[in-house]
Amino acid sequence: MNEQASTGAARLSRRMARGCEFLGTDVAILGGAMSWVSERNLVAAISNAGGFGVIACGAMTPDLLDAEIAGTKALTDKPFGVNLITMHPDLTALIDVCRKHAVGHVVLAGGLPPAGSIDAIKASGAKLICFAPAMALAKKLMRSGVDALVVEGMEAGGHVGPVSTSVLAQEILPEVAADIPVFVAGGIGRGEAIAGYLDMGAAGVQLGTRFVCATESIAHAHFKKAFIRASAREAVTSVQVDPRLPVIPVRALKNAGTELFTAKQREVAQALDEGKIAMAEAQLQIEHYWAGALRRAVIDGDIEHGSIMAGQSVGMVKKEEPVADIIASLMDEAAAALEKRAM
């Protein structure tokens, strides 16, 4: 390593120190929790490569999560976390499973945590990370005692909000980064972007799409090929058909499955009109649809009718390669960018 590269690496190390200390890792990169993709193999690979893998619990039952955590522990002795969805009907039992395994970090996603969940997670000894798609929510979560925040913009894959990553970072980092570790997510595909957010005060970043085509990812070969061939503009958000339905936009590669989701919304809206289901059941049906559609694409390789959830950084996914190589490339790019800024 030449002196210039060494200086850039040193600057990067200093900027990531807070995030690394919080996560217990070599690099402050969280793996985005992607249902069916972020399972034991990819999670362990990210942690073994110096990052922080996160299990996507999604719609798992407590027994399934129990087995997944145990399976991940068999593949790595490095720190990793578990992502739980706030609307999961068995959230309390899932938290108990994390406590049983002494999971060090729990990531809560899907809106404001329900009553008692924050206290239960903190009582287990785990550090709590929550998503903050707006300044008001960031401050509310901080008052509630969360240990870190993820600021995720609309460029991300899967469920997304309405504001871009760059705008959220500018709005939130200057206000709260001094008080709590903040990880930036959404549309990050290269190290230069990581360097930029670290310079703005972020403790680290979260990447999902970039890891889908990792060699260690169990995603179907057809799913990976769709990522490698796609451009940023092909990753589009779903449309909400009925304003009554609690439908959070989902970003995915456009295919026939996009139209199938529109039809599913009409079906659920009609059931609401006819009084066959309550609003809570309507929301669960929508979530279960996404879980099933995503599985068809990721596991079965049905990239025409399944859901190919992908962030706009998908255009920067060029090939299948090991997680360690992906992280090394990102770190080299970030170090080089920081070195140039010092000149």
> In CATH's first tier, which class of the largest domain applies?
Alpha Beta
CATH fold field value of the largest domain = TIM Barrel
Indicate the proportion of strand residues: 5-15%
Radius of gyration of CA atoms, rounded to a whole number? 19 Å
Q: Residue-averaged pLDDT, rounded?
A: 94
GO molecular function: enoyl-[acyl-carrier-protein] reductase (NADH) activity; nitronate monooxygenase activity
Pfam families: NMO
Organism: Stakelama sediminis
Keywords: Flavoprotein, FMN, Oxidoreductase
Brief rundown of the structure:
The chain has 343 residues and is α/β, with parallel strands linked by helices.
Fold and architecture overview:
It is a single chain. This protein is of the alpha/beta class and 343 residues long. The protein is built from twelve helices and twelve strands. Strands 1-9-8-6-5-4-3-2 form an eight-stranded parallel sheet. Strands 7, 10, 11 and 12 form a four-stranded antiparallel sheet that branches. Helix 2 (40-48) packs parallel to helix 3, helix 8 (191-199) crosses helix 12 and helix 10 (256-273) packs antiparallel against helix 11 (279-298). The longest helix is centred in the first third of the chain and has 21 residues, at 3-23. The radius of gyration is 19 Å and the shape is globular. The two termini are 18 Å apart. The relative contact order is 0.15. Keywords: Flavoprotein, FMN, Oxidoreductase. It comes from Stakelama sediminis. One of its GO terms (molecular function) is enoyl-[acyl-carrier-protein] reductase (NADH) activity.
